């Protein structure tokens, strides 16, 4: 009886406020997501703080950050909300043709640039009222972003997935070497010439060592990384306008290389292929909308 009384005193409408603030890290953005005013979100947070006897979110230079207690609560609250949405959805089944929901995909830009155009074609054909958002997510960030419900589905190159997620292979890819048309390396793409060239790599943090450098080091070789850039699409533009060469996923070269005037070549050294996996939390799959979105990756044509 006591538990029933305590639950009756809890406003479950506050849980989406917690979810939105955790995901957005900003009260104003959380308010926009919930279609309420920032003051309403702040009021809801004050009630949540009283309910859980914890500050939950602390002010930071660009918004708010969760406390340890908030992080402990995150999975349980997400589970409650997912199950509640599933139950409510049983009364009105999810219909992609009529739904006005917004879904968020998380992926590195090289994957998104190949996958999203085909995925959007399916969404626009079958669900014209649904909005899509793309969030730049690297492999190391994917599980945290999914746990925080910042994204609905991640697509990343990864081999092992924790048991709390479902996953499937979307497509396989491999690396090629890319250079501008007319580049002298294309006439003699040997390993010796490869090491003599100046290279550009993707490194958001500015690190100058990548997977290729480990392969070269195993052969007693090295190369000069003359430039780092934060994204693959920027890399395409840099290679198109300079004598720098790069190792890029073949799928990205096939999709966008021609418009940049680039030539793809098989590498003069062994490079592993890799699998791209679509990943979603198992608890989120209780949501018929997320289940539908995840199913699109069977037919996205990428």
Short description:
One of its GO terms (molecular function) is DNA-binding transcription factor activity. The chain has 302 residues and is of the alpha/beta class. It is built from 12 helices and 12 strands.
Write the layout of secondary structure elements.
Blueprint: H1 2-8, H2 15-24, H3 27-34, H4 38-52, E1 57-60, E2 63-66, H5 68-91, E3 102-107, H6 109-126, E4 131-136, H7 142-147, E5 153-157, E6 165-173, E7 175-180, H8 191-196, E8 198-202, H9 211-218, E9 224-229, H10 232-241, E10 246-249, H11 250-256, E11 262-265, E12 274-281, H12 288-296
Parallel strand pairs: 3-4, 3-5, 8-9
Antiparallel strand pairs: 1-2, 5-12, 6-12, 7-10, 7-11
Key terms for this structure?
302 residues; alpha/beta; Arc Repressor Mutant, subunit A; D-Maltodextrin-Binding Protein, domain 2; 5-stranded mixed beta sheet; 3-stranded antiparallel beta sheet; 22% strand; disordered N terminus
Structure report:
Belongs to the LysR transcriptional regulatory family. GO terms for molecular function: DNA binding; DNA-binding transcription factor activity. Residues 10-67 form the HTH lysR-type domain. By secondary structure, the chain is α/β, with parallel strands linked by helices. It folds into three domains: 2-91, Arc Repressor Mutant, subunit A; 102-166 and 276-296, D-Maltodextrin-Binding Protein, domain 2, CATH 3.40.190.10; 175-272, 3-Layer(aba) Sandwich (D-Maltodextrin-Binding Protein, domain 2). It is 42% helix and 22% strand. It has twelve helices and twelve strands. It has helices spanning 2-8, 15-24, 27-34, 38-52, 68-91, 109-126, 142-147, 191-196, 211-218, 232-241, 250-256, 288-296; strands spanning 57-60, 63-66, 102-107, 131-136, 153-157, 165-173, 175-180, 198-202, 224-229, 246-249, 262-265, 274-281. Strands 4-3-5-12-6 form a five-stranded mixed beta sheet. The chain has a three-stranded antiparallel beta sheet with strand order 10-7-11. Strands 1-2 form a two-stranded antiparallel sheet. β1 (57-60) and β2 form a beta hairpin. α2 packs across α5, α3 packs across α4 and α6 crosses α11. The radius of gyration is 23 Å and the shape is elongated. The termini are far apart. Residues 1-5 have low confidence and may be disordered.
């Amino acid at each position: 009886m006591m538990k029933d009384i305590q639950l009756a005193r809890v406003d479950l409408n506050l849980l989406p406020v917690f979810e939105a603030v955790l995901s957005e890290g900003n009260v104003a953005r959380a308010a926009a997501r919930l279609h309420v005013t920032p003051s309403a979100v702040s009021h809801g947070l004050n009630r949540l703080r009283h309910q859980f006897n914890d500050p939950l979110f602390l002010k930071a230079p660009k918004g708010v950050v969760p406390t340890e207690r908030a992080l402990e609560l995150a999975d349980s609250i997400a589970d409650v909300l997912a199950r509640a949405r599933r139950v409510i959805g049983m009364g009105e089944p999810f219909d992609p043709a009529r739904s006005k929901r917004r879904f968020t995909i998380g992926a590195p830009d090289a994957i998104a640039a190949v996958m999203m155009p085909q995925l959007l074609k399916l969404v626009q054909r079958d669900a014209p009222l649904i909005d899509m958002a793309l969030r730049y997510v690297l492999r190391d960030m994917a599980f945290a972003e999914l746990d925080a419900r910042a994204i609905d589905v991640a697509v990343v190159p990864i081999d092992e997935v924790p048991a709390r997620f479902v996953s499937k292979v979307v497509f396989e890819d491999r690396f090629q070497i890319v250079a501008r048309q007319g580049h002298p390396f294309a006439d003699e793409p040997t390993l010796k010439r490869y090491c003599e060239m100046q290279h550009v790599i993707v490194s958001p943090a500015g690190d100058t060592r990548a997977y290729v450098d480990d392969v070269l080091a195993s052969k007693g070789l090295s190369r000069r990384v003359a430039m780092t850039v934060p994204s693959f699409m920027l890399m395409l533009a840099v290679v198109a306008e300079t004598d720098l060469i790069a190792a890029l996923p073949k799928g990205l070269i096939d999709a966008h290389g021609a418009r940049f005037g680039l030539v793809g070549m098989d590498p003069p050294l062994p490079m592993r292929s890799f699998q791209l996996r679509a990943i979603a939390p198992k608890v989120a799959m209780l949501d018929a909308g997320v289940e539908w979105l995840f199913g699109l990756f069977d037919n996205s044509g990428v």
